[in-house]
Design brief:
The complex is a heterodimer of chains A (232) and B (372).
Chain A lengths: L1 H4 L1 H7 L1 H5 L1 H36 L8 H16 L2 H7 L1 H8 L5 H25 L3 H9 L4 H12 L1 H19 L10 H10 L4 H29 L3
Chain B lengths: L7 E11 L4 E12 L4 E5 L6 H8 L7 E6 L2 E2 L5 H8 L2 E5 L10 H6 L10 H14 L15 H12 L6 E5 L7 H18 L2 E6 L2 H7 L2 E6 L2 E7 H6 L4 H11 L1 H9 L2 H4 L5 E9 L7 H9 L2 E12 L2 E11 L4 H11 L3 E5 L1 H22 L1
Parallel strand pairs in B: 3-8, 3-9, 6-7, 7-8
Antiparallel strand pairs in B: 1-2, 1-4, 4-5, 9-10, 11-13, 11-14, 12-13
Helix pairs in contact in B: 4-5, 5-6, 12-13
The chains are: A mainly alpha (232), B alpha/beta (372).
Chain lengths: 232, 372
């Protein structure tokens, strides 16, 4: 136990990590910050778009061919753009929105735009799985479209929405690793610009370990929560 | 609304579905009147348009043309909030129960009360308890649907359907996914609710057995049309349409018994003065000692081959397979007398009947091969 905690031990196996401890602490926060903020915004957007896709789809409770067609195509287009290109392409829009196109906060815009359509699709899939008969039963007792959305769709799909959100957050963490390309910092940036570029392999490995730890924690908590809410 | 006006009045209902390459006319110019307190059975094979027709009642399906009046209200003219309000007075239960999996039994029953009911929180809880008690599931209140059997789930669905005190309950194949024993307990419950709460029930099914056990009126549907309708007793004792006869047969098994009988050598070689007949009768005619009369008046000897008597709406309905033998035209005279008594007589020519059975069997085989 004492060996593991001893600075000497770490210095011997990961000399550069120990030397750059502050960098790690900061880049871990950057990763968490980017994931959290863009995750929340993309989450709200994704849920709204996902619901809209389900209810406006043909046969949906608010079927509307035009709205569905537009949303469907938008989601497809934004999902198809490789993230690294999206970062560059939307730079003017980012500047317009947050005043700068460089830095951690600037990275929030492309992260959100890159994640929202992906999440919208996942939300759509989760909601579509709610049995059409359950929706019909709700309509039969006089539920309004809003009541059906909030009290039936979101409630019935909750376990799937949780699972889907976990997948989305994990993929979002993956995207934050690319944020370094526009000066967004984060663990991905540390791994590449310090670890890889300076041949300090222990830094790259440590960045990976921290990201893996974050992913595992989210995965485990998400699974537990989903299982707890699932009564099917 | 006039005192004796039907609670559900469908006039000239047409429902057409437009698909990519064709239009399907699921319901064709159907009129249907359901009186308050009826348990109205709508029978038909799947695809006959029964489900579409009843969905017009609560406007889950809008009619392409025709007029829907429920409790004096023109349903077709209702939209939005007014339509949702009207729907609360029409309960509906489904083949697959359609309970919300992520809510407890109590919360499922509570659901309709969360949508705008003016009851206080306490009164809502009391209502849920009362409904669960009514369907006999009080102790399951905190369970989830996944923990219940099919019959229990349907009971919860019934409790939910009754939460807003509807006047009408639509049952869409509600017993079709249940075993026979559970089916009869659910049907008993519906009958009970009909008597206790004055609930009008519209029951769609493909099982004549279900209709037979609780309905007072029946309509038979085929390809979007009602081909025959009437009160239960008339339909069962004097069906006029082939389809109706088929449905009745599935529940009485008379043809199955007959098929067995004609396979017997003694029946295949009937003497000239012997006749194979099936007598069908309903109500009062069963009280007379008919069989005894045959011998006393006409010296015709009845040999009973098979028979069954069922009680439909407190009236006995019977079928009797006999071989009658008598001197000269005694058998004909006896049958004429029997007809006078209001009994339906079906004379079976054994050779023809067997040929028909063989033809039907061949037909069924061809169909089965076509599907395979």
């Amino acid at each position: 136990m004492t060996t593991i905690l001893a600075t000497d031990f770490w210095t011997s196996i990961m000399p550069n990590v120990v030397a750059n401890k502050d960098v790690f602490i900061q880049s871990t926060w950057e990763t968490i910050y980017m994931t959290l903020v863009s995750g929340i915004i993309a989450g709200i957007l994704g849920i709204i778009i996902g619901i809209a896709l389900v209810v406006t789809a043909p046969g949906g409770i608010l079927a509307n061919r035009t709205t569905y067609w537009i949303l469907d195509k938008l989601v497809n287009i934004f999902r198809s753009i490789p993230f690294i290109i999206l970062l560059a392409v939307i730079a003017p829009f980012t500047r317009l929105l947050v005043g700068t196109s460089i830095g951690t906060t600037a990275a929030l815009v492309p992260l959100t735009i890159g994640t929202a359509p992906f999440y919208a699709r996942q939300v759509q899939n989760a909601l579509v799985d709610v049995d059409r008969g359950i929706i019909e039963a709700a309509e039969a007792v006089g539920a309004s479209p809003m009541q059906i959305i909030f009290r039936v769709y979101l409630r019935e799909a909750l376990p799937d929405l949780i699972r889907t959100s976990v997948v989305t957050v994990i993929s979002l963490i993956g995207l934050t690793a690319m944020a370094g390309a526009i000066g967004g910092g984060g663990l991905g940036n540390t791994a590449i610009s310090i670890g890889y570029d300076r041949f300090e392999n222990d830094i790259t490995i440590m960045a990976m370990i921290i990201i893996l730890a974050i992913v595992f924690i989210i995965q485990i908590l998400g699974d537990l929560w989903a299982r707890k809410t699932d009564h099917r | 609304m006039a005192a004796n006006a039907p609670i559900i009045d469908l006039k000239g209902i047409d429902v057409t579905f437009k698909e990519a390459d064709r239009t399907v006319r699921a319901v064709k110019n159907v009129d249907l009147e359901v009186a308050k307190g009826d348990i109205y059975g709508i029978v038909g094979y799947s695809g006959a348009g029964k489900s579409t027709l009843v969905r017009v009642i609560n406007q889950l399906q809008r009619q392409t043309s025709g007029k829907v009046t429920v409790s004096g209200q023109n349903m077709g003219a209702l939209k939005g909030k007014a339509l949702r309000q009207a729907r609360t007075k029409i309960g509906m239960i489904f083949q697959h129960f359609n309970l919300m999996n992520e809510r407890t039994i109590g919360d499922n029953v509570m659901f309709p009360l969360l949508l705008g009911s003016k009851l206080s929180r306490h009164d809502k809880q009391a209502k849920v308890d009362e409904l669960l008690d009514l369907v006999g599931l009080s102790e399951k209140k905190n369970d989830y649907p996944a923990q219940l059997s099919g019959g229990q789930k349907q009971r919860v669905a019934i409790a939910r359907a009754l939460a807003n005190d509807p006047e009408i309950l639509i049952s869409d194949e509600a017993t079709s996914a249940l075993d026979p024993k559970t089916t009869s307990s659910i049907l008993d419950l519906l009958k009970n609710l009909n008597e206790k709460l004055g609930l009008t029930v519209v029951l769609i099914t493909h099982e004549m057995q279900a209709v037979k056990s609780i309905c007072n009126k029946v309509a038979v549907m085929q390809s979007g049309e009602i081909v025959e309708r009437g009160d239960l007793l008339t339909i069962f004792s004097k069906p006029t349409q082939q389809l109706t006869k088929e449905f009745i047969e599935t529940s009485s098994q008379i043809d199955a018994a007959l098929a067995n009988v004609v396979a017997q050598p003694s029946i295949q070689h009937l003497q000239a003065n012997e006749r194979l007949v099936v007598l069908s009768y309903a109500g009062a005619s069963t009280d007379d000692p008919l069989i005894a009369q045959l011998y006393e008046q006409f010296k015709v000897t009845p040999n009973i081959l098979f028979g069954n008597v069922e009680i439909l709406q407190n009236t006995p309905v019977g079928n009797l397979g006999l071989v009658l033998s008598g001197e000269g035209d005694a058998v004909d005279k006896a049958l004429a007398y029997v007809k006078e008594q209001g009994v339906t007589v079906r004379q079976i020519n054994v050779a023809e009947y067997q040929a028909e059975l063989a033809r039907k069997a061949a037909e069924a085989d061809t169909n089965a091969e076509g599907e395979a």
